Here is the input.
Amino acid sequence: MQEIEKIVNGKDLFKRPEYQEVLANKKQFESSMLAVNPAKVDEIAEWTKSWDYREKNLAREAITVNPAKACQPLGAVMVALGFEGTMPYVHGSHGCVAYFRSYFTRHFKEPTPCVSDSMTEDAAVFGGLVNMKEGLKNCAAVYKPKMIAVSTTCMAEVIGDDLMAFIIAAKEEDGGEYLAADYPIPYAHTPSFVGSHITGYDNMMHGIMSQLTEGQKGETKQRINIIPGFETYIGSLRSVKTIVEAFGTDYIMLGDHSDQWDMPAGQYEMFQGGTKIEDAKDCINSSATISLQKYATVKTMKMVDKRWKHPGGFSNPVGLKGTDEFVMKLAELTGTEVPQKLKVERGRLVDAMQDSYPYMHGKKFAIWGDPDFLIGAVSFLLEMGAEPTHVLCHNAPNGWEAEMRAMLDTSPAKDSLNVWAGKDLWAMRSLLFTEPVDFMIGNSYGKELMRDTGTPLIYIGFPIFDRHHLHRYSISGYDGALNLLTWITNKVLDQLDEDTKGIATTDYFFDLIR
Amino acid sequence: MGPESLEAKQKAAIEEILKAYPEKAAKNREKHLGVGSPNDENQKTCGDVRSNKKTVPGVMSQRGCAYAGSKGVVWGPVKDMIHISHGPIGCGQYSRAGRRNYYIGVTGVDTFVTMNFSSDFQENNIVFGGDKKLGKCIDEIEELFPLNNGITVQSECPIGLIGDDIGAVARVKAKELDKTIVPVNCEGFRGVSQSLGHHIANDTVRDFIFDAKVNVDTSDVIATDYDVAIIGDYNIGGDAWSSRILLEEMGLRVVAQWSGDATLKEMALTPKVKLNLLHCYRSMNYISRHMEKEYGIPWIEYNFFGPSQTIKSLRKIAAFFDEGVQAKCEEVIAKYQPMIDQVIAKYKPRLEGKTVMLFVGGLRPRHVIGAYEDLGMEVIGTGYEFAHDDDYKRTKEEIFRSTVIYDDVNEYELEAFVKKLQPDLVASGIKEKYVFQKMGLPYRQMHSWDYSGPYHGYDGFAIFAQDMDLAINSPVWAHSKAPWEKEG
Here is the structure.
């Protein structure tokens, strides 16, 4: 029973003897093996740690267990929320939208507006035109967005709804009452059974950029477009802008959700910040376009390259080398020197790296996440002399594996460094048991791996549900690399203390100064 | 605020809110909004609201889907079975381990609740069908997770659209492997909310656990006259455990928990109990009714939120049994009363008169009202994501004062209601949480207990009281306004 002076929640409540008795008593009715035959559980648990299990586990062809990827419309929702006053609108059933909203909200600890047009069985039979007509009208009337960005769920894709025709029909029927003829409603087909959330990002970004710029081609302006990609670090967006601003150049960040998912307390407004619609329409007239995430903008950048013929290309400003390349690219595109401010920032980062390197050098890491994140983060590990033993990318697109392999091959430890494209986190569990590492870098899904294998987890990635505010920081630019360095080094130091705190046994190494 | 003025304010708020909609949507939403009065015999449902209808497109409903109702709610917590999210990758990922269905077990070895098994459909599975892949998924599960006691197939939207026959695959595999394999056609587009998913899942429990051979040994459990099952408790934060303890203390034997911390064996044992105790009526009334009809097991609803309702429920349950149980029931009530008196003495002065608006799912929009009222807090608005008429009828008995009732409320409406009625606390879900916190309003998630809990039973109530106090009386809300801002 609770004690009034020390009311405890489930963390401690169930440790009490009366509850332990309840749980023990319950076992007689249970069929789970721990209740029936605990020795058998131990036996199988041990087997899951073996090479035999690993081989079977890695040979899986059909079942995915503990994935590290999500589906297309999630990425489309992120794109939409990076534009001024834009409502993400998902054509399909509303359960999906409830999921996208919860998922982002749990990560950012911020509201995530998004509507659906609530298609049900009748729409599955007759198509979702009626839903689209009503949905667009209601959305415009109630939330008054400046733009509505339409993507799709797999339901709408399977039945083959035609977004362009539906949007035209919705506008026609509305007759301009809520949906004026020029009301921007860009769209993208985002089937969940193709690619992953970064594919959806690409499709929606492509949709917005290509559709808003129709008929807008004019004179080229000295201005750089920046496409951040599926960026879940709010601080990264700000770091990138700061770097570009240091060059004194005009720029447009296309899809800038840094204000939307980082609203100050005091009042709630559904939409904040974002790329101005006017800028988005005019981005075709910029002189260059740089994408910061190659694999999340394949289609978009193909359009920019082939049709718009913008120079720029890709540049991934995560880690020292990546940021250097980004900075040099900007210097080249703007025809200016690298600003003093950035030179100093770089110097400070390198100074910090040279201060901390003994703690990362030679340490073995397992890391997983989106392909572009991994290119940057692994580069940084290599810059520090660390060994990325297992690099796992569940949603690896074509070309990624070879690029990552080439990066790892620059390490003196290359023969013990592995790339795992298309594998899930249950595969990672076997890798960690059979070829252990010192630390893991990844998202909250690494938590169970931490529990099962005892490998310490450094929270960097998406989604992060159970650690607070990390997403507010930057992992891009020189300041972002400093954050990476700080998080990783201090986790290594925490673990060093953890390993040496044994009183009168190991605490000779429990040094005050490290 | 007098009761008349409150009611007038609530009615005015509804009127005002409807103005933002186009005509057709306004007409629809009008039927889902109302003001409930306690003991108003004229009202058919609380506030005379309509429910369980299609959501208005384009309005940011908070509803989920049938898959969420089946995989997320009913089947997902059954711990010694593996639940395949069958279709594209997203559904299983977004719903992974979000509901806090606590359980004891070695995850990945003999229990699997917080994991995510997905058939990860690719385009070729859509074009050529996914039945073959499903069969292979089941084989691979068998090899790598040999201690699983069964598999359920939780269909995502495409399954029902591409003509796959998961029933056939399940039949073949069940026979081949001598194992419980449950095909669930809970595609997200079915029905209007998670509710149909509950019903579909209940039906598959009937068909594949009760009416089929289950390959776990139940013969060692000899039935007694005091056997009961907890139905519709998902053990969120340990709720079922803090309920179970009370039932056992009054001499009952809890044979099964549905479905928090449940195992296949417990579910298979349930048709032999003497009484089914139904907490979440909405999600599990179907299987309770079925057991009544098929096995003659009566069921009663109970409410373990807050001491007033808990005491009422304990006595209602005891009344079904003999005098021995009834005497023990009184002992239990007497045993916990001093603790509860202390909790109320400590927290009521800090919370009295504070107003609350709720928006949740399942049973909570009505069941938690009593817990707030026990603390002197006043619930002035409530609504359900996916209720039916029978839920709103039951709500009439739970409200204490004029209460604004909003069915399937959307983001716009809830925000507007809160702005107009200015409650001291909003209690709803994660999607709404930060909207209200931005406004400086204390907020508690009432789906996940905001990562605290349990809230059921006497021990749970103490936590509930402490958490509500934490939210309302935290100093952080006072920081919203900067010192240089003028008053008013």
